[in-house]
Design a protein that fits this description.
Shape: elongated
Structural class: mainly alpha
Number of helices: 5
Order of helices and strands: HHHHH
Strand content: under 5%
Helix content: over 70%
Radius of gyration: 21 Å
Distance between the termini: 42 Å
Length: 159
């Protein structure tokens, strides 16, 4: 059961990666054809891809911790997943920023593109679900770690 959290996280991260790479492909194509000079979208989408790869790498590296049935060493294992939750949060912020920029451009009449708005909004929603799974997975991991630690404490007789 526990392994399914990480695999689902990786699946969702892959979906966001594909959406971001499609957006990056579109903006690079528009720049080559002279329809856009926007460099910030190239940078933000390339950053999203790199951060998603980091997220997946960190998630994959913690898979053995998730899969162990017990015997968790309280002093040599992490107690929270900041190392890969931070890249996920940054990607969500970038995707939300892109959504806001597209929304403002649509309101100002600069574009009529709705697919970019929908794509980035979906990215944000998937990232929120993905990070929620991550937090739930680590809650279970910490519960197991606390149980292992409690079992290791010798019980003393009442005095």
């Amino acid at each position: 059961m526990m392994g399914s959290f990480t695999f689902l996280e990786i699946l969702l991260a892959t979906a966001v990666f594909l959406l971001a790479s499609n957006e990056l492909r579109g903006v690079v194509k528009a720049r080559r054809e002279g329809r856009s000079q926007n460099l910030s979208r190239v940078i933000s989408h390339a950053s999203m891809l790199v951060l998603l790869l980091a997220y997946v790498a960190f998630a994959w590296s913690y898979l053995p911790l998730e899969a162990t049935a017990g015997g968790i060493d309280k002093f040599n294992t992490p107690t929270f997943n900041w190392t890969y939750l931070i890249p996920g949060i940054i990607v969500a912020i970038l995707a939300a920023w892109e959504s806001l920029a597209i929304y403002r451009a649509r309101r100002a009449g600069l574009t009529d593109n709705t697919s970019r708005l929908v794509t980035h909004s979906v990215m944000v929603l998937v990232l929120v679900v993905m990070m929620g799974l991550s937090v739930r997975k680590w809650d279970r991991y910490l519960e197991r770690m606390e149980a292992t630690y409690a079992e290791s404490i010798p019980h003393t007789a009442n005095r």
